[in-house]
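Key result, reporting period 2: structure in, sequence out.
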């Protein structure tokens, strides 16, 4: 699917690059939160992405 080109999206649910970046950011924040045993504000870590 990644290199297949444009696909039909009848439900309008395809993720864009921003959704992918946020997904990575959430995972990184979760790992950091577990390692440091404290909470992180995603928007503070996003450098203006959201």
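The corresponding designed sequence is given below.
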């Amino acid at each position: 699917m990644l290199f297949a080109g444009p696909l039909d999206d009848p439900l309008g649910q395809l993720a864009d690059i921003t959704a992918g970046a946020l997904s990575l950011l959430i995972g990184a924040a979760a790992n950091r939160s577990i390692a440091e045993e404290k909470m992180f504000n995603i928007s503070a870590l996003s450098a203006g992405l959201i």
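The chain has a mean pLDDT of 81. Residues 18 and 49 are 8 Å apart (CA to CA). This case is discussed further under Risks and Mitigation.
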